[in-house]
Amino acid sequence: MRAITIFAILIPTIDAFVPTHRSASAPKFLRLRMASSDEILGDTTTTKDIEHAKYCTDHFGECSLEEMERLRSALHQERISHLAAHQTGLNNPHGLPSDLEHTLLEKDLTFQMNLIQEQLAVNEMNPYSATMKMPVPVLDGTLDEESSEAVMICLAIAGLALLPQLF
Q1: Is residue 1 part of a domain?
Q2: Which range is the signal sequence, renumbered to this chain (predicted)?
């Protein structure tokens, strides 16, 4: 009886043990299509963004932190999509110089953002840092009336203290 139930269970799955020739292609639900970079990014990065990123890296502090973060992430997405959108990763439609330029712009933006964030953190930790950076007034070398009187009194006391030692 036990053998019959085991046999009844295995009959529907017997095809799993029979070798059959299957096609090398993946099943329909597993087939993946490589997306183009325009589909990945929605064509958001344009030459205008690249020019603006160049402007931000050349003119430190003129772009906001959020704007620099947006430009850096757009450059990073575009650079990564060039590698991910093609089978080999080497068929970059813009070429290697463009990728190098994007990488350098991305690193410059990251460096500038880190500098700005570090400066903001220092200012938040020490609220008096802005007043500490004020220039120290330069002394002109002359004494006003009050300080000249104080200097004369100090010299008189020093003279009286040293006078007995001289004789």
Answers
A1: no
A2: 1-16
